[in-house]
Write a structure and sequence with these properties.
This protein is α+β, with helices and mostly antiparallel strands. The protein is built from 5 helices and 8 strands, in the order βαββββαβββααα.
């Protein structure tokens, strides 16, 4: 297939945060964004040196009763490839659009965010996300570090406007959260997010 002029990249972890996304894109810019809900389970696993703990991943298949909070970023193919390289810290990774039909998962590397996962269409444009090549059942849940959780909190607030209770309920339900986040811990992260976003709203 030809590289699409427009596609949706679906973020569910630290790239919910617009500042994180812009940093990952470099010179590229998203053309639009919106909140989307996924039926694929979200979990934390592995260990990432940059983040000092586990990172989020999306399971390969949907499951009944699951509602994962995500954010769709409208990009072009070049921007998606930039995310592929940045998120995998592999400057030579590329998508071979000439041999991939865009409908089946594409393994770009055997670890990290090495799987490009199609998620159907949105407004006539294809949706893709990056996740680990192994399905959730083959991975061991692990706890994320504070910096990673902070990026997620900032993105969830920015996209969904969640308060302390909503954030706490959502994050504590995810596999890999070894100890439950307290109200105070989430309040502190939300205060940091509000300062970053320039939001003076009281919670």
């Amino acid at each position: 297939m030809d590289a699409p002029n427009q596609l949706w990249f679906i973020a569910y972890g630290h790239l919910l945060d617009s500042a994180q996304l812009l940093d990952a894109l470099g010179d590229q810019q998203p053309q639009d964004e919106r909140a989307v809900f996924l039926s694929h389970p979200l979990y934390f696993s592995g260990r990432n040196r940059r983040w000092g703990g586990a990172v989020s991943a999306l399971d390969h298949h949907s499951a009944a009763g699951v509602q994962t909070l995500a954010r769709a970023w409208l990009l072009d193919a070049a921007a998606l490839e930039q995310l592929v390289r940045t998120e995998n810290a592999e400057p030579d990774l590329a998508i071979d659009w000439a041999t991939w039909d865009g409908s089946a998962p594409l393994t770009l590397r055997d670890r990290g965010y090495g799987l490009l996962l199609p998620l159907g269409d949105l407004d006539g444009r294809p949706q893709y996300t990056l996740t680990n090549p192994l399905p959730m059942v083959q991975r061991r849940p692990a706890a994320p570090g504070p910096a990673y959780l902070q990026a997620m909190v900032t993105g969830l607030r920015e996209c969904y406007g969640l308060n302390v209770i909503g954030l706490r309920n959502y994050l504590n339900a995810l596999p890999g959260m070894e100890s439950e986040l307290s109200h105070g811990q989430v309040k502190k992260m939300l205060d940091t997010a509000l300062a970053e976003l320039g939001d003076a709203e009281q919670n």
